[in-house]
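Now produce a polypeptide, keeping tokens residue-aligned:
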Amino acid sequence: MTTSLAAYILRRLLLMIPTILGIMLISFVIVQFVPGGPVERMIAQLQGHGGDATARFSGSGGADMALNAMQNVGEGNKYRGAQGLDPEFVAELEKMYGFDKPAPERFLRMIWNYARFDLGESYYRDISVIDLVLEKMPVSISLGIWSTLLIYLISIPLGIKKAVKDGQPFDVWTSAVVFIGYAIPSFMFAILLIILFAGGRYFDIFPLRGLVSDNWRDLPLYGKIFDYFWHMTLPIAAMVIGGFAGLTMLTKNSFLDEINKQYVLTARAKGLSEQRVLYGHVFRNAMLIVIAGFPSAFLAIFFTGSLLIEVIFSLDGLGLLGYESVINRDYPVVLGTLYVFSLIGLVMTLIRDIIYVKIDPRIDFGTRSI
């Protein structure tokens, strides 16, 4: 590693600190203004609009406290629907959820805890957020890594071939396939795959739910590997089919731009073979824009892109966790997962820049601005 690259990496690592602080500050402020927070939800349950709210207070006389609070009419409550509750009880709810302290103090405490990777505990799941994230991580990692890997392995060679044979029959019929993949979302392919191969109507070859079988721990090593990929085949196939189109066209257009430049014509005039020109000169320059999109593509698949796939195939991953946490106003999980994904995104961007210099040594990190 050169000195300039090491200095650049150090600057980027230091820049991550204010970036994370800014992301978390904006998210924290937004959360403060979102209606229907945990206190409001508990009040709604106590007023008979939800499930058993007194369960959160069992074991310490809290159930009696909740019932008594519902019988007392309090004035001056700042929460909608709290007119039938004792203000002292509402204050206890605020303390339970951590809303009894000023917002700046809560934010600073949250940042201090996050710096030590203490992400707090879920409001409703009785488990720490970090344990919850680690529990859901294998599903999202499986979908993200394998889908991204296959998309790149398919899209880059296909895009190069389309650029080389631009306007020829191969380019025309593959463009039709790419257009179909681009036009139809991945969850529609998922439904189609279920109908065809998961007992929907025709074949019952692949399982419909879960990351592994119930007896996975009892299987030998080769059996565990086979069972894992047996379960992941359809979800990954759906995400690959729905995600390869954009990268294929990006690769093709990038190569077409480079093929028409002067240095390519010069290399051909010198008598270099087409393979040498394509992979020795064009590839290095054309791949820069493709690599630039890797972090965003990976995160899109890793989080948002996998949400519907997780729902359809009953895969309990981070995408589904984030969605449920937002709906349930489980703020520790919402902010904790956002913190984790922000860190992953920043690290992936740094990795992208390091790959840049490996592909094109002409990049000088010593003079490059952050």
